[in-house]
Amino acid sequence: MRHRLAWSEAGAFGFLLLTVVAFAAVAVAGLAGGSADALWVGALLSSVVIVVAITRHRPGRALRTAPAHLGEAGEHQILVLAQETPSEESLNEVGSRADRVVVVSAASPPFLRRWTSDIDDARARAGSRVDETVRRLRAANVDATGAIGDDDPVRAVEDALREFGGDEIVVATGGSSQDAGVAARVRARFALPVTHVTR
Amino acid sequence: MSAPPAVQDDRADGHMKVLTNVLSGAGRLDGAGAPLDPQPWEWAGPHVLIEHADEARADALAAALRRAGYSVACCPGPAAGGRCPLADDGCAAAAGADLVVSGLGFETTAARDALGALRTRLPRLPVVLEAGAGDAERWPELVDGCTVVAPPAAPEQVVAQVRATLRAQESDAA
Q1: What is the CA radius of gyration of chain A?
Q2: Residue A81 bridge partners (DSSP)
Q3: What is the CATH number of the domain that holds B117?
Q4: In terms of CA atoms, which chain A residue is nearest residue B38?
């Protein structure tokens, strides 16, 4: 993955310029007012450099990709990323439009738990979401299958598309701002229609 | 007597930029630069790169091409105020494509530069180009050699041209 701040040569050059200006200011402060002042000016300008670099970051519009249609011609397959178990209404709507539904859920453990490989609970919850969603779809006579995906939701979708295919993606979440970020990432990554449903 | 300039209109700057980039190795296609993220051609099947600033139009083309059995990557081209994926990612993506559907238009220098860069760097890559009759007359060096469809062509019509172009290329190769 590309470094967040080095998104282009121009961006990297701007960052370099800001850093040079900051160092110059620190040097001037050091010469004029002594080392304590230089420390304060350095801390302040370092913060400015970081804030400006981050706020200037524009990710641009990256490539969106999608695999060829898998399955029968004319068959419409929907991939549901179940980060929450979708509502009955959402599932009915999905089932009414799909010939086949694939449900995938990313475990997405919190950072510390992922770092310590303590992901069993998160995977168990992901498994429950998949089981419940598939059970409800099948109860409505929808051809549905499911799997626990990668910890990263986008990677989980990618793997599912490769294995099962999909003509449309439905991202089901709890509705937090973090969840909206997941939907945005999926939308930015795949050249497929993406719908975000919340409970 | 001095030699006439190689290019006499406002396209000179763009072409010189392309030439400079190629000579300096900028935007090289050998993978020496930053890796593409995502990798555009991780999917199986013939690969079609769709270059279109209009996301809805790109999605309609993508859907039709996917139904016809092609994997797709959509590139928005030079976006106003944003970085230009075509300057690095786009061309690198095109390097792995079997065909490019280009609908960036000819209105802006950036769009013409993008098409010019593509044609210069990958001259054998087939291009299905959305272009009006006036475009072909005004920008022949960009349009010649492309399969031209008049905008707004129905997605199915574009798919038919993609299929025909790839078939013709296979016949030429054989």
Answers
A1: 23
A2: A104, A171
A3: 3.40.50.2300
A4: A63
Partner-chain contact B75 A63, CB within 8 Å: yes
What is the dotted CATH code of the domain comprising A77-198?
3.40.50.620
CA dihedral A98, B38, B122, B126 (to 10 degrees): 0
Tell me whether residues B66 and A58 touch, CB distance under 8 A: no
Instruction: Report pLDDT digits (tens) over A80-118.
Output: 999 999 999 999 999 999 999 999 999 877 777 667 777
Residue of A nearest to B76 (CA): A61
Average pLDDT, integer, range A130-139: 96
CB B136 within 8 A of CB B154: no
